[in-house]
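Protocol step 4 of 6: record predicted structures for both targets in the notebook before any analysis. Target 1:
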Amino acid sequence: MAPPPAPPERSFLDELLDNPLMLGGIALIALLIGFLLYRVLGRRREEMSESVFLESRIPKDSFFGASGGESVDTKNRGDSTVSSLSYSPSQLDAGDVDPVAEADVYLAYGRDLQAEEILREALRVNPDRTAIHLKLLEIHAKRRDLRAYEGLATEVHKLTGGNGADWTRVVDMGKELDPGNPLYESGTPRSATP
């Protein structure tokens, strides 16, 4: 008589499936690993979004019009006109770079937040320079920030007395941004009208 057949050998997987405690432990470990991965990846995304150089949501078309600010030909020196971006080495070393030109560079790369920061610091140092105001006004107009634009336009009105090319530029941008605002119609700030 032949011996009875031996029971088939049970695999590790079969033993796991038969033991509900072991199966629950494995599920709990898998959940913990998934949660840790979620937290680590979330932190990385958060750190990337809090970069020192905040990116702008404004398109990189800047304020350069037809040139688009994308490429600048620095090799062509045959032109007899002097560019506003031409600096002597002594100016660059001394930190005497024009803040409006520096802001233009940041704006060309879509970094309007850095440009605005540079211009605000320049206004603190030189509050009477209307070119700084105008460049900031361009940023506010691009963002369609009516309140910031109107506040700064009022300052330019005080500086220019409501006359000249700078004020005309402010009025032109203001009419496009906020057509119903009397500041850009009559040329006088709201607080100055009775």
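Target 2:
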Amino acid sequence: MSKLIPDYVFDSIYDITPALLERHGIRGVLIDLDGTMASHKAALPPDTLAPFVRTLREAGVQVLVFSNNRERRVGKFCEALGAEYICRATKPLSFGFRRAAKQLGLPLSQIAVVGDQIFTDVLGGNCVGALTCYVQTLDRHYFWVNVRYQIERGFIERGKRRMEARGRHE
């Protein structure tokens, strides 16, 4: 069950700072698209996303959009964002994460996985030894997404407690 508990819990991807990543030796991030970077209904990135990605890159952090969605969806979004990506990532299976690490040229221990789902992003990231950052989904107002959140809520709360305990010791 500990593989379902994120290392960090944030309200939004915008709360993840280069300083936090640097403290953990992170040089690359795999960021989920739907529900994390934008709503699954948004065809293009929001205006706030490009500056966030630029801030990470300027701090020396490589960014790779890492989505289980199809090429058509992910490719169009990432072309507009100017970001590299892997679609049909097969999260939470480890070979997708290993493929992403190879594309970034980094060991998984230097990669953070950022996403809005415990059973794909967090589980997969924890199983391969990456730093996991759970973010509140942007699609919570959709019925089935909210049902999923209710199932995940206990793991999210444990992640918050883990993060608070770590903060007291840093």
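Step 5 preliminary note on target 2. The mean pLDDT is 93. The CA atoms of residues 25 and 154 lie 28 Å apart.
Proceed to step 6 after PI sign-off.
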